[in-house]
Amino acid sequence: MTDTAELAGELRLAVHRLTRRLRQENPPDDLTLSQISALAVVFREGSLTAGDLAAAEQVRPPSMTRMIAALETAGMVERTTNPADARQVMVSITERGRSTMETYIRLREQWLTEQLADLSGDELATLQRACDLLVRLAGR
Amino acid sequence: MTDTAELAGELRLAVHRLTRRLRQENPPDDLTLSQISALAVVFREGSLTAGDLAAAEQVRPPSMTRMIAALETAGMVERTTNPADARQVMVSITERGRSTMETYIRLREQWLTEQLADLSGDELATLQRACDLLVRLAGR
DNA sequence: TATTGTTATACTCTATAACTATA
DNA sequence: TATAGTTATAGAGTATAACAATA
Fold first, then answer.
1. Confidence class of residue B109 from pLDDT cuts 50, 70 and 90?
2. Is the pLDDT at A120 greater than 60, yes or no?
3. Does the pLDDT value for residue A48 go beyond 60?
4. How many angstroms separate the CA atoms of A50 and B10, rounded?
5. In this structure, what are the phi and psi dihedrals at residue B75, rounded to the nearest 5 degrees?
6. Which residues of chain A lie closer than 8 angstroms to B116, CB-CB?
7. What fold, for B4-138?
8. Contact status of A61 with chain B (Cβ, < 8 Å)
9. Which protein residues have a C-beta closer than 7 A to any atom of strand D?
10. Residue B8 pLDDT > 80, yes or no?
11. Residue A116 CA to nucleotide D19 C1', Å?
12. Residues of chain A above pLDDT 70, percent
C-alpha cells in the first residue's frame, strides 16, 4: 500500500523542481508563462470579465489586474468597459494576441516537448493520467 | 498515440496550478516551501557546503545564499567556515531545525496528504510513477 | 450596502553581474 | 588566475488591505 504522506512530499518536491526548470525556458514574445496561461483562456473562451479570468486562472483579482495590464502593454488583449454593467472590465484578445497564441500552440512548450519525446509510451500515458489528477487536486 | 506537444501544454498547466494551490497552504514555523525543501536536504545529508546545497536544490548560488540566511535567522541551520578551505561555508542543521523537520515529516504536506486520501490506489500509483518522471525531466 | 476592479504595499523566489576572500 | 560565496539589483508572481466606481 502507498503511504500518502510520503507521496505528498515527493509530489510537492517534483512539482517544485519542474516549475523551477520550466521557468528557465523563455516563452515567445517575451510573455511569461503566467501571461501565456491567462492569454490562452481569453483565446479559448473569447471575451470575458477580469473577475471571470481571475477565477479561471485561480488567482486573486489584484494579480489578474497585473497580468491584464502586462498583456495590454504587450498588445495581446484589449480592456473595455461592459456597457451592461460599468463596474466590469471585459478582456478580449487582439489580432496580435491571436497570432501569438497560434504560433505558440504550434511551437508549444518546445523544451518540454523535446524532453517528452525521449519517454516511452507507457511513461507518456502515466503523465497524461497524472495531469488530470494534478488539475483535480489543484481545484480543491 | 500521444501527442507530446499537447501533453507538454497540459503538463505545464497542471504543474503551474498545483504550485499556486500548494503555496496557499502554510508550512510550519513560518518557513516557506523552498526553505523547507533546502532544510530537508541538510537534515538528510548532514553538513554540506553552500555550493553543494545549491546544486542539490538546482538553484544558483545567490539564491541559496538567501535561503541559508533565512534559515539561519529562523534558527534552523548554522553556517561555519570550512577550516580545510576557508572559501567554503558549511551548512549544518541545528537542534531546532532537526525538531522542526521531524514534526514536519510527521505532519508532512498535510493538505496534499488529505487530498490524496480521496484518490484510488490506481491513481496514487500513477502519481507515484509521475513523480519520478517529473524529477527526471526537471534534472535535464 | 454589495460588487467589481484598481492601487498601494509587501513578500517569496529566483536570476545575472559585480565584488570579496581565499586558494 | 580560478573558485566559493556574498552583495547589489532586478523582475516575475502573488497576496492582503484600502480604495473608487457602480449597482
1. confident
2. yes
3. yes
4. 23
5. 75, 20
6. 4, 7-8, 11, 137
7. Arc Repressor Mutant, subunit A (1.10.10)
8. no
9. A 23, 32-35, 59-60, 62-63, 66-67, 85-87; B 16, 20, 23-24, 49-52, 54, 61-62, 64-66, 68-69, 79, 85, 87-89
10. yes
11. 48
12. 97
Please list, in sequence order, all residues whose beta carbon lies within 8 angstroms of the beta carbon of residue B69, skipping any fewer than 6 positions away: none
Cα–Cα–Cα angle for B88, B94, B96, rounded to 5 degrees: 150
Is A7's CB within 8 Å of B129's CB?
no
pLDDT classification of A14: cutoffs 50, 70, 90: very high
Domain residue ranges in chain A? 4-138
Residues B124/A23, Cβ–Cβ less than 8 Å: no
Q: Does A56 touch chain B (CB under 8 A)?
A: no
Entry pTM: 0.89
In angstroms, the CA B67 to CA B36 distance is 10
Place of cell 480592456: A79
